[in-house]
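Exercise 7.
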Amino acid sequence: MKSLLFLLGLTVMAGGLIDIDALWDYKNPRESEKKFRVALQENRLQQNKEWVLELQTQIARALGLQKNFDKAKETLSAIEPAIKQGSFLRAEVRFLLERGRLLYLQKKEAASRPFFAKAHELSLERDLDYFVVDSANMLGIVEKGQSARDEWKLKALEFAESSEDAATRAWLGTLYHDYAWVKFDAGDKEGALKLFQKSSVAMLKKGDLAGERVARWCGAKIKRLLGKSHEALRDQLKLESEYRRLNAPDGFVLEELAEIHQELGEKEKARAYFHDAYMILAQDGWMVSTQRTRLERLKKLGGMAFVN
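Solution. The predicted structure, written as tokens, is:
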């Protein structure tokens, strides 16, 4: 048992139970699913029925993220009778959340909302802070109407700030980031900048270095839009250096550097950065599918107007 836990890097909580959330790698749901199934096979751990049910909800979530919707639904349906018959405070909330998330992944946002709303209600009643924030965050995505979505995002943020639970407060980096864009869309760039700076600190505190770099990039972008070009340049150059040390040049950083040099009247530097940004971002699936005009602009300003 010890060797298996060591090899998988599993975190064991009090009582000998594996920390389910520590198994997650949201960028690799297939690998996460494998870890969940290995943990589920440990007979000693299966003595805790609620833990087993919680783990199965996360297997369903991993399947959904792999777009294996039928198998995910089947997994949740298989545990539904036990959820309804038992008094499983946490497992029931996780079950509702994953029912909702599965519908959301299938682009059935209206159908997902009642599941998130019920999960939020039960989480509040049961003092499950982490799931209060999780459910509010999801309602901030699926609620009908932008103002209603923004209200849920603010509720999630304020609740996480007031919580004394470390896992709940670990949400803050993401929540500051999301609400910063709400501020930005409302025209409050200074407010957005402050929240991105808070996001950077919170991400660093929980050890999410990738998230911290994204927060700094967002803050630097806002500085540029506020006319603070030299501050933005300093911040983006630092990010460029960090990404190159990781051997992973970031096209979005290069794009911002191009925009800054363009605004400073440094045309040759701007063109070089536009060129390099295009060469990277033209390989990005999201950019290709949703940002064609933006890519064409990068291509033109990078001196590649006639490159196929």
